Amino acid sequence: MQAIMVRELRRSFGAREVLRGIDLDVDYGVIATLLGPNGAGKTTLIRILTTELMPHGGEAYVAGFNVVNQASEVRRRIAVIPQDARPISYMTPHEFVYSYLLLRGLPRNDARKAARDSLEELGLWDFRNTPIYQLSGGMTRRVLVAAVLASNAEVVFLDEPTVGLDAASRRVVWNSLRRYSDSGASIFLTTHYIEEAEQISDIVFLIDSGLIVSRGRPSELVNKLPGKYVVEYPASAGTEPCIRVGSSCFSFVDSLDEVGDGAIRVSPKSLEHYVLVTIRSWGEGNEEG
Ligand SMILES: Nc1ncnc2c1ncn2[C@@H]1O[C@H](COP(=O)(O)OP(=O)(O)OP(=O)(O)O)[C@@H](O)[C@H]1O
């Protein structure tokens, strides 16, 4: 059985079809990342998978249960951080995580231990008794991560879990996500940080205008690009062959001897280049694709 199985999933808002037939599978024990430009349909997909929104077509199963007609079974097995979620600000991190676990049905002693372990892991133990409204934005976000990762949910959904976190905090969260998935659970997250997706994902799904346009391990996707290096020129340079991405164009070369005059940047090829070449509208800074 898979942690997540989605077939031909569709959803519209008014006349606009936002999900146009999504297919994806996520195994247990992995971190899966949904990457895509603003408005691609990421949050809509997460809202359907977490039983918050009804699909208009197709099927989705989470932890083996149908998200429409077995929604309560799904809810029992998942933990979610929705986009823009905030913990209750007058509580302390300890009160928030502990009460979240009690609400999920953990016995008191288990909840106390899990809350402590998770707050320690996310670097929040020293602040456990500080009201959340006195914490920084990044620490507040980590309180939410501490709560869901203290749960024993089989599938965890995180809509942009690391927004606003500094580089060190982001790494703390990455390590916690990895530990959680290593225990056999699955993590399904969205992010705008392509470098983050490359670092932490076992599998990446690229979504554009409501369709999955590419999927694979980050290294597999990067290896679909030719050459070893990416040379970036101004779009006006007219260098051939060159793939236009926004105001730049990218040339893929095997050797630095091939770098022509006017190059603005040379770097090893990466997931970012794959994504920009695959979803050109991202490079245009185009919100709605
Ligand atoms: N409740 C709603 N009513 C009407 N339109 C909606 C609603 N929710 C989402 N949409 C539209 O559906 C499209 C996809 O939105 P969604 O939030 O899923 O995108 P996203 O990929 O998560 O974007 P972002 O990266 O900006 O968070 C957008 O055009 C959005 O305006």
Automatic annotation (TrEMBL):
SMART domains xref list: AAA (SM00382)
Transmembrane segment boundaries: none
Native organism: Vulcanisaeta distributa (strain DSM 14429 / JCM 11212 / NBRC 100878 / IC-017)
Protein name per UniProt: ABC transporter related protein
GO molecular function, one term: ATP hydrolysis activity
A family per Pfam: ABC_tran
ABC transporter domain location: 4-234
Annotated keywords: ATP-binding, Nucleotide-binding, Transport
InterPro entries: AAA+_ATPase, ABC_transporter-like_ATP-bd, ABC_transporter_ATP-binding, P-loop_NTPase
Family: Belongs to the ABC transporter superfamily.
